[in-house]
Amino acid sequence: MGVNISGRSFLKLLDYTPDEIRYLLKLSADFKSMKRAGIPHRYLEGKNVVLIFQKTSTRTRSSFEVGAYDLGMGVTYLDPNSSQMGHKESIEDTAGVPVWNGLTDDFHPTQMLADILTLQEEVGDVRGKKLTFFGDCCNNVANSLMVVCAKLGINFCACGPKERMPKAELVETCRAIAAENGCEIVLTEDPHEGAKNCDCLYTDIWVSMGESYDLFGERIKLLTPYRVTKELMAEARWKSPTRSSRVRSPASSTRPRTACTPSRLSCTRP
Hints:
- This protein has two domains: 13-95, 3-Layer(aba) Sandwich (Rossmann fold); 109-267, Rossmann fold (3-Layer(aba) Sandwich), CATH 3.40.50.1370.
- The two termini are 36 Å apart.
- The protein is of the alpha/beta class and 270 residues long.
- 35% of the residues lie in helices and 11% in strands.
- The chain has helices at residues 18-37, 59-70, 91-95, 109-123, 140-152, 168-180, 191-195, 216-223, 230-233, and strands at residues 48-52, 74-78, 130-134, 155-159, 185-188, 200-203, 265-267.
- Residues 239-263 have low confidence and may be disordered.
């Protein structure tokens, strides 16, 4: 039976089956190939999308706008100060159409499609591979990585300080999903355990968007042991990082940006 997700919202990957996620990844790969080849794919000509942002954005907004234009859509951007949404009526009532989640405090599903597509391009079949997230393991990116890995049969390891681990309820939910798909969810405070036999090392920024800048000093001290460095990369499954690796100097090994484009993966392969 074919996959049909027409008319559905895309709020979190927990709402989607493994086959539906693979369908979206295949569709993404096809669109990427068309763009690289200069083949027009304006399949949504005449449609319109409204981008609603509660916080200022550069790369996430640009990614969605470019993607919509590539598909032939008209784009309207609304920030918190340019509309009455959420005041006179709820955002749900105003929308009345399927909603795609570009980013929330808990989940970042669109980023996962970009990241897993990159992982597929680097290692091929992702089932049975190991992906470790280093650092602030309770943020939206780490949460969504844990979900997508459980759904797609990828062994996921959250490696960070115990006070920054994912919520226990989400961990248990993902472990149940992982058991159905032949993979496991592991939590560890040991960077060496996280890197061991790892196919993809993934990290994030010190302080997530929307958090207070006052947290930087505390967070840097807490997360410094979990930087992705050349030394940590050497402990991964393969010893030579590919061209897509983003290994930075020890002083800046966490990612310096937020986007719906893959920019934080360090993949290894033979």
